Amino acid sequence: MSRFFFTHRFLILRRISQITLLVLLIGANRWGWKIITGNLTFSELFEKIPLTDPFALLQVFAAGASVKQTVAVGALIVALFYVFLGGRSFCSWICPVNLVTDAAGGIRRGLKMDFEDEDGFIRLSRNVRYWMIGISLILSMLLGVAAFEFISPVSMMHRGLIFGIGFGWMAVGMIFLFDLLAVRNGWCGHLCPLGGFYSLIGRNRLIQVRHTADLCSRCDRCIAVCPEKEILSEVGKQSGTISHGECVLCGRCVEVCEENALRFGIRKILKRRKT
């Protein structure tokens, strides 16, 4: 049992993080808890510290709307965290949709529905998510509203869980089937502009996965479980850091590596002096 917890330690911590946040937000809405109030777009920690989704704020600005100073400050706080520390960790440690896409991915692997050289029945470029960022901002400008927030499965699922309204469960079902039957890691790894946004701003984050080639046995277990397997292309070839912005810092590659060739580390900012 202890080995199970060790080999799933980051997965367990991620689930605790995701579920705890949902419980606290539901508690705030239904029972008046004051630890964190609001939703994933805008919330307040202890009714003092604003936390705003910076991508949502960009859409609001594109729509030509004005925002309160606290909203802008909240976006700055969140953006600084992901730029310097968390990278794209929102996707694997906070976002509730990750619970759904991980389930679909696990079933695909269990039923051996993954293929070596292709993502699934539909070929879809992972760069689509970056195009979705531009499309979301253009539509926000044309329509005068934060366009992606209206159709975002993240927001829909969140509203459904916390407020019990909307089409959240329908969106959840569609994403699950899309990831299960059409494209491996289809929504998070190919389409979601929010994940693409955090990929762009988190490329120089401090927390990164480090790889030691001398310890690697080339078993490829890390690649099998990684939701962004392309970022592990150098595993087994040369030592270094997985510095791609697409890394969600889920830690699955670290957990399954029995040789300890992969581990979390802090990026070196200053180069060592030559002796």
Task: Give a brief rundown of this model.
With 275 residues, the protein is mainly alpha-helical. The chain has helices at 2-7, 9-31, 54-62, 69-86, 90-93, 97-110, 128-143, 147-151, 153-163, 168-182, 186-191, 193-201, 221-225, 252-256; strands at residues 36-38, 42-45, 49-52, 207-211, 240-242, 262-266.
Note the total helix count: 14
- The proportion of residues forming helix, as a percent range, comes to 40-55%
Shape: globular
Q: Alpha-carbon distance between the termini?
A: 48 Å
Mean pLDDT, as a whole number?
Answer: 88
The order of strands across the largest sheet is 1-2-3
**What does the main sheet amount to?**
3 strands, antiparallel
Structural class: mainly alpha
How does this structure look, described?
With 275 residues, the protein is mainly alpha-helical. It is built from 14 helices and 6 strands. It has a 3-stranded antiparallel β-sheet. It has a 3-stranded antiparallel β-sheet with strand order 5-4-6. A hairpin with a 3-residue loop joins strand 1 (36-38) and strand 2. Helix 6 (97-110) packs parallel to helix 10 (168-182). The protein is globular, with a radius of gyration of 19 Å. The N and C termini lie far apart (48 Å). The model has no long low-confidence stretch (mean pLDDT 88).
